[in-house]
Amino acid sequence: MERLTDIIALVGEETVRAIAGLIGVLIVVVVNAILLTWAERKVAGHMQRRIGPKEVGPYGLIQPFADTFKLLAKELLVPKDVAKPLYHLAPILIFIPVLVSFIVIPFDAQLQVKDINMGILVILAFSSLSVFSILIAGWGSHNKYSLIGAVRSVAQNIAYEIPLLLSLLAVIFMANSFSLKDIVEAQKGLWFVFYQPIAFLIFFVAGVAETNRTPFDLPEAESELVAGFHTEYSSMQFALFFLAEYTNIFIVSAIATTFFLGGYSGPVLPGIIWFFVKTYGLVFVILWFRWTFPRVRFDQLLNFSWKILIPLSFINLLVTGGILKI
Amino acid sequence: MTLGELIFIFLLFVTFCGALTTVIARSLIYALVGLVATMFGIAGLYIYLNAPFIAMMQILIYVGAVAILIVFAIMLAGPFYKKPTEWSKVTKFLVSLIIALFTYLLFMRIILHSFLGGQDTAFMITTKDIGRSLFDKLTFPFELVSLLIVVSIIGALMLAIFSKDRK
Fold this sequence. Notes:
The complex is a heterodimer. Chain A is mostly helical.
């Protein structure tokens, strides 16, 4: 114990905090992905009156580990005509926004890697990088399905990023801060979902679209595009794309929790439990969507955003601003 | 050399390499990757200069919006359009020399005539300061910019409407 305090004194508290934070973030990312691959199959099973995985471990809980080892043991196949630098860059690049986003999310009053005073901007700015890496993956794969998937993804992301930003802006107006922690603290009285129900719905729809989940999964529509932008990826590179996708679902739910559902605040139980209960509740809703809604057509997808969500979020923003000023 | 200086040199390196790739790359998509790297390098420099808000806006606007729009332009233009005629090597060299010299002189003028350092302590610009100065001191230029954007939106709409008939 004494040596530990010596080390902390030597390198400075800030550095220790940063390293501990990074390790914590990696653990959350991996555990979350393992949990979600299991939950997705289990939820899918029960929605269709099956029971899902059950052979490996109790309730099939060890199944994700088996899947992981299978993926790790597979050969890394690289197709002949791919643009090598782009092809190998994409799976790494898609992981940067995922890791950066975790830095500013407050899991509990004290449990946050760093409270930056423009936290939400960090998440939104870096999330644009994930579109870019999908594009690189699609372009670099030298495969028409990948390219079509990537182009769809870009069009979709442009359309849905605007209502996403505008709906969050209404909450930022109310909390008067970009810091996620301040936003949670501002909801001590009543959650923002009750003040801003329209903004919450817009954010959630746009968030599902941004993570490329059903009913907005056109970039990876299995029945049309094989697997979309990650058709040509195998083994661990494929696993990285999936890890990023599951973590993105978690991040969207975590932001929704922080902005609209009071984040870590709640009675009796410690904050971190409240945070995870709320977040995984929303994650479950996203998994639920997949087996409830059919995939939308592409023109429906774009029209819905440009003609309904964006005007609606503008009106919501104007009304919020007007009421706050009066 | 301190850690700060190392980070500064690294950021400069990223920005420089990205810019060089943007100019030299034969394939447009590689040029775009270079451009994105440059934007990240510049955003890093803003953070280094204690202006995180501008850094985040730089990434949000230039990587999130402008780079993606450039992608659209590349994909829509495709290989079907008529390629512009290539210039001869001498013309290329002369034009790039003129542009380089002009830019150099312009920037030297700006750098030499602007205030250099002066403050001993590092200062921090908060989002509040930026908002205050945008809506108090700089209201007129701010409104002018919004007018410019409105005009360009209307222009784009007109182009879209009138080119519909031609098809």
